[in-house]
Amino acid sequence: RIKSVKDLSGVGQAVLNKLNESGYSSLESIAVASPQDLSTVAGIPLATAQRIIKEARDALDIRFKTALEIEQERASVKKITTGSQALDGLLGGGIETRTMTELFGEFGSGKTQICHQVSVNVQLPSEKGGLSGKALYIDTEGTFRTERIKAMASALGLDPKEVLQNIMSIRAINTDHQIAIVEELQDIISKDNTIKLVVVDSITSHFRAEYSGRENLAVRQQKLNRHLHQLVRLAEIYDLAVIVTNQVMARPDMFYGDPTVAVGGHTLYHVPGIRVQIKKSRGNRRIARMVDAPHLPEGEVVFSITNTGIRD
Ligand code: ADP
Ligand code: MG
Fold first, then answer.
1. How far apart are CA 264 and CA 46, in angstroms?
2. Ligand 1 atom nearest 107 alpha carbon
3. Are 163 and 195 in contact (CB under 8 A)?
């Protein structure tokens, strides 16, 4: 029976060392690897890489399943409350595990506030809408604020210091760094099953800045796609929630035809997941619109951003 990487057929000590050095130290990380990557880093033939990926997937039960089995698995998807009943309702109960949720909207719409709130709420016990879990927060814009975390934690009667300790944040400097961080996540998460939320705020800003211009479009799209799919697989394999934010123009229609805005379309439509648009309304009111979910109706709700966090 295959329990760890060394049990995979054809993985001797030399290959094992190379895999470890490259961060492929768990069955999960191998199951989600690309055969090309694995072949290159371990110095093994492509066919061998494909075989050990398959063995790792089999060992982890990643395979065709009956719809009944899938229904049973879906029933075990967990939800994290956003702090607003209306927003939770729109999301079918809250932010789901095993799924990537994209929040897109213009500057100041509240994407970052929601990310902060869910990083606090994931720590709540299940009867209060959390998962008694920890959060990993990848901050690409330098907008992560402990003050907001503390205010949100206190409002829920949680110990602010404890809540801060259960959120690990890292500032991603550029796209390569952002990509490398996500690649390392597999290792971190496979060693700590209390991590139940991964936030990338924002997923697109570095990509937009570094790959601006028509000539860079294809490469940007390819890199971003791969990055997003890695996050989706993390969510599925480790049963955790992934939230990514995506800043878009207030009126994307104005820029119709401009490739720098149209990248990934208006949203990240090419990756599986749930997409929610956040729009400013009057004062602290915000409108959330369900744009694309495999199992939820389209719809709109209103919520508020307050000093104590996201509320109805
Ligand atoms: P985005 O990430 O979508 O650009 P943010 O999540 O940063 O937007 O939201 C910024 C908005 O959140 C501010 O315009 C303000 O309305 C609200 N906000 C931020 N901090 C507080 C606070 N302490 N009290 C009340 N509202 C706040
Ligand atoms: Mg923001």
1. 31
2. 4
3. no
Which of 285, 305, 307, 308 is the pocket-test mutation for ligand 1 (most atoms within 8 Å of CB)? 305
Q: Is pLDDT of 189 > 60? A: yes
- Residue nearest atom 24 in ligand 1 by C-alpha distance: 307
Please measure the distance between the N-terminal and C-terminal CA atoms of the chain and give it in whole angstroms.
51
Cβ contact 2:59 at 8 Å: yes
Fold for domain 73-311? Rossmann fold (3.40.50)
198: three-class secondary structure by DSSP: strand
User: Is the Cβ atom of 169 under 6 angstroms away from ligand 1?
Assistant: no
Is 141 within 8 Å of 201 (Cβ atoms)?
A: yes
Are 86 and 299 in contact by the 8 Å Cβ rule? The answer is: no
Residue 105, ligand 1, Cβ within 6 A: yes
CA 272 to ligand 2 centroid distance, Å? 22
What's the pLDDT score for residue 180?
94
Question: What tens digit of pLDDT does each residue of 226-257 get?
Answer: 899 889 888 988 899 999 999 886 554 444 44
Query: Which pLDDT belongs to residue 251?
Result: 53
- 235 C-beta neighbours (distance < 10 Å), count: 23
Please give the CATH number for the structural domain made up of 5-59: 1.10.150.20
Six-digit token string for 55: 């063995």
Domain ranges of the chain: 5-59, 73-311
Ligand 1 and 186: CB distance under 6 A = no
Q: Give me the pLDDT at residue 4, please.
A: 81
Q: Is 306 in the pocket of ligand 1 (CB under 6 A)?
A: yes
- 26 and 16 Cβ atoms separated by less than 8 Å: no
Per residue in 66-104, pLDDT (tens digit) is: 999 888 888 889 999 999 999 999 999 999 999 999 999
Structure tokens at 165: 């300790």
CA distance linking residue 10 with residue 48, whole number of Å: 8
What is the token pair recorded at 180?
Answer: 């490398």
